[in-house]
Amino acid sequence: MIFHALFLLFLLRENSSIIKDIKSIGFEDYVRIYLELKEKVDFNFSADKKTISILFSREVSPTKKIIQIKDIRKSKITNSDFQAELQKNKIEIKFKNNFSVARYFVIPFPYKIIIDAGFKEKEIEVIDAGHGGKDPGTIFAGMREKDITLLVAKKLYEEMKKTGKFDVFLTRDKDVFLELEERSAIANALECDAFISIHVNSSKSQAKGFEIYYFSQKFSEYAFKIAQKENGVKMGKDESIVFNISSDFREDSSKKLAKTIAGHINKLNTVRRIEGAPFYVLAGTFCPSVLVELGFITNPEERKKLKDKNYISQLVEKIYIAIEEFINSYLYQNSYL
Ligand SMILES: [Zn+2]
User: Which of 86, 100, 119, 187 is deepest in the core (most CB within 10 A)?
Assistant: First the structure.
C-alpha cells in the first residue's frame, strides 16, 4: 500500500491556550488528527456522520477560532475536506463527507488526543471458517467441523458479496490450515469492521442450540471449556492474555454484535449462550469480533439440520441480516469504533 503522508502543524499562539498544537496526517482514505494539550483535561468524544466533537470539562482556548488544516502533500483527504473549529471548551472537526469510522485514543505523556477518521466507501467484513487442513475440529458421525464451517463461511461470503454493500473477505476459502493468530492478523490488516469466526459444537450430552462468544478475560466455567477446545490448548484460568487494545470498548461492541446475531438466528433455533471467554482467535482483532457455534454435531436433530442446504441458507441469511443491522445501526450511530 502506498501512503501519502501529509504533516501539518499548528501552533496556537495564545499562552493561555491549553491546546498546544494540532497536527494531522492523511493516508489513503484515512486522516489522523493529533491534539496535544499542555496538561490532561477530561473530555467527551462524540461522532455523528460528518462531525467529530470533543467536549472538554473546562476551557482549553480563550477564543473561538477556525483552524483550516492545510495540505502539504497529496492524500485522498485534503485540506478542503475538513476544518476544525475551536470554541473555548470544545473542538468540532467538520468533514465534507460522511466518515465510515471515527475513533480516538489517548497518549498520557505528553497528553495527546489522537483522532482517526476513515472514509472507506464500504464496510469490510472478515468471515473466518474455523479449523482446516490438519486441524479438522470436531469429528462426529463422519462429519468434520472444518467442512461445515467452510461451507457456511463461503455461503455467507457469497450472500454478502451479492448485495455489493460490503467488502468481504474469507480467512480461508479451501481446506487449509491456518494458525489462530494468522486469522486475526488478516482481520487487522484489512482493517475490518466486523470479524465472525464460524464453528460447530459438540457435547457428551444431548445439548443443542447456538452459542455466541466474544473475547473476555471474565468467563464462566463452561465458556472457558469451549475456549480451551477451540484454542486447541489447555490453559490455566489465571493465565490472562495480555494485549494493549483498549479492551472495554471492544468487548462492548463485540457483545453488541453477538446480541444482534442472536436476535436473528434465534428464529431458527435456541441461542443457549452469549458469553465472553478467552478465545485466541478473537484475542488479537481490533474490530468487533465474535465466534459463533452453529449447533451441536453430537445432537442427531442438529446434525440433520447442518446437512440441510435449505437450513444452511436460512442460517446464512439471518447472520447476514444481523451483520448489516449491526453495521448500519450500531457502528454508525456510535461511530467510534
Ligand atoms: Zn471449532
Answer: 187
